[in-house]
Queue: 2 jobs
Job 1
Amino acid sequence: MTHHQSMLRIVLLALPLIFVSTVSQSDAQDAEATAGISPRVVADYLHAVIQADRTLYATHVVSRMQDTGTVMASEGWKKRNALPLPAQMLLLSGLAVQEQGLGLQFRLASLWPIYERNGPTTEIETKGLEAITKDPSQPYTAVIKRGEKDYFMAIYADKAVSKSCVSCHNTHILSAKRDHKLGDVMGGIIISFPLGAEK
Ligand code: HEC
């Protein structure tokens, strides 16, 4: 085979590959441009990540460090050289995300908050927290306005999954409710993000 012939063979063999790769690239672009993912599914994904982080932080960091006497978790963690409580970590992470300017927000809230700032801030949040208290099996969802823009909001029930939830909240000096029981809905995780890109 001459040099030219073998070059031709390589080019011919490679042609379908080039074709295939162009097709799949344009498919990907089409998918990005046209395929939608429902806001409810996005909210479910975000909730899954937020909950996983909180649970793993509570078990693999807070409980483990406390059990081994390494370091305690305390509400006054900054002054006390302690670990933040899981609720505090979630709230801090929500603030850090808010600072990124994506329009994405999430926080932990309750109809009976320890701190008033964690109470509902709008009527729809009150309605949502009431709804998930009655039926925690599914999130309460709504489209809300912030300024001119539409945001999707989802509120997921936050249940007393361990005795420590109950005992800490029932005995906290500022707590608005002192008869939480294991398994009760104690509040909710409120997630919201813009319907459409922020920038
Ligand atoms: C050691 C004490 C402690 C434990 C244990 C604890 N929390 Fe909290 N929780 C707090 C404090 C303190 C806040 C307020 C944090 C803030 O706003 O800085 C809070 C906030 C919350 C809020 C937001 C409303 C409010 O009360 O301010 C919810 C909902 C909540 N916790 C649910 C839970 C659940 C569910 C568990 C168990 C998985 C749990 N907490 C475990 C202390 C605790």
Job 2
Amino acid sequence: MTCPCKSCECEGGWPSAPEPPKRRTFLFKLGTGLMGVGAALAAVPILGTLLGGATKRAETKWVDLGDLSQFPAGQTRLTSFINPITSPTDGITAKTACWVRCVKAGEFQVFAINCAHLGCPVRWFAQSKLFLCPCHGGVYYEDGSRASGPPPRGLFEYPWKLEGGRLMIDAGLLPGLQEPGFAGEGAAS
Ligand code: FES
């Protein structure tokens, strides 16, 4: 049967009859299944991040910062170390730094060099006994607690321990804002 309008281009005649219900049901199930597969694939990186974070918490990588004589009592000194979690392509960026404060003989605080605001390296000013951040003016007291400016908290601290006359820090995990209470055996609470 040809189309009665005679003006359209549907040379094949009337539109074909509706698809049988079975085919439609099959296509619906196929579409639903493909959407499910897509959703599962999209969830993989999210789950990886969540589970990865949980397993990273268990990592402990003690790094030797050096002999205790390098850190005199009452002083805060900059020192560097190689990040224990690196890849072969990291190059010089694997080298990082931290501030070591020797409160008194055998008692330390080891601060991450990165500001708790947006991560700029903070500097220690011994005369004023303050850490200053050059980026947005964040200021921290000598014990790492926040003094003023945009940082939402004090400097992050590495857990530390003494071993054979040497200062060691657990550099396997840099504490972050997601772990506000993170502190190791030797870190201040
Ligand atoms: S990064 Fe230090 S105050 Fe913003």
